[in-house]
Amino acid sequence: MRYVTYEARRGQRVGILDGTRVRDAGFDGDMVAFIAAGAPIGTLTDVEDARLRAPLRPRSLRDFLSFEGHLKGAFSRLGKDIPREWYEVPAYYKGMPDTVIGPDDVIPWPWYSEQLDHELELAAIIGRQGRNIAAEHAAAYIFGYTLWNDMSARDVQRRELPVGMGPCKAKDWDGSNVLGPCIVTADEMNAADLRLTVRVNGEQWGSDSTAHMHHTFPDMVAYASRDQTLYPGEVLGSGTVAGGSGLELDRWLQPGDLIEMEADGIGVLRNRVGRRAPEPG
What we know:
Blueprint: E1 2-8, E2 11-18, E3 21-24, H1 31-36, E4 45-46, E5 51-52, E6 61-64, H2 68-77, E7 92-95, E8 100-101, E9 107-109, E10 116-117, E11 120-126, E12 142-150, E13 152-153, H3 154-160, E14 177-185, E15 195-200, E16 203-209, H4 217-224, E17 235-237, E18 258-263, E19 267-276
Parallel strand pairs: 6-17, 8-14, 9-19
Antiparallel strand pairs: 1-2, 1-5, 1-14, 2-3, 3-4, 6-7, 10-13, 11-12, 11-17, 12-14, 15-16, 15-18, 18-19
């Protein structure tokens, strides 16, 4: 099943994506409430002129680093080595749910950055409440998957990294996290071997498979749930695939560029980059 959040005459609602057709799911609530309720489908009705939005406003965003190929390419350009601890710990940073935008939204360019970059990721959405979840049982807690474009202000990131507190304004601005276009339920895709591709202005910049993840999604669920309850609607990101960012290629986005991220079954997450915002004041 492919679920979407769409906007039409009745505001934002949960829908089902049937090919290119959107059908209202007959649920009075947002996507997080829909997932928490066990995805109860009511009377399906076709929707005219539906515009897809971000599939959900996550309860939380946790972004991991699971692709060694990306780290090898990116860390060398950021002046860092891969620490040995990375191979042992599925570490993550937390993002801001209110920064999320969706398909076809313009990605804002923050005024304080001159070097903007995309990051191609697969994201898992938690579907069941759980705590201290064993890795061998963790897959049952994943509701589904979507694409995540985790935007980065690279020049700002280079200044923040030496402090050792993780990314700050390099990741956090309104519109810096893009999710979509839909959520594909976990029973309908093999997240352990999924091809992910990113194109900029129609040219392929990178492609990789989740088969190359060092830390798996069950590993991430188990680690994040250590003595902490996970709730339906929380999002866990795979981290950037190898070749999934311009940083690895020393190629950079420009205002007006069209970014297209694609995965089999999920479809294409498409956004244009906006112009750099004027400095306040």
